[in-house]
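INFO batch 0412 | record 1 of 1 | parsing
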Amino acid sequence: MLLPAKSYNENVTKYWKDIEHEITNGEFFYLKKYTDAAGKLYFNVNSWNLFKVVDLLELWFFCKEETVIGNHNQSLKIIIRNCENLIFPHKFRYVNDILGGLKDELWK
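INFO prediction complete | emitting tokens
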């Protein structure tokens, strides 16, 4: 199972839970169905992993677009590599086809 950045360590996890609680128990109560806890209720393991992989793919696209427009910060390269390392092992055919094709052809 992929772990989001908010699960990096105990302190970060606690802060994120507090933030989600504060947001979803106040004015924005309707967002409660989009929390990680709610998502895990509706998805099986494979669907949850696909959801997370697509989220990583979106981050990968953003970082690649940044490099195309001239942002060559080394952190972007690290994030891109980390996204690829987390996405490919899951073997979601269409996601890997998209990532592999774009990786090899568009953004060398």
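INFO post-check: The CA atoms of residues 43 and 51 lie 9 Å apart.
INFO record closed
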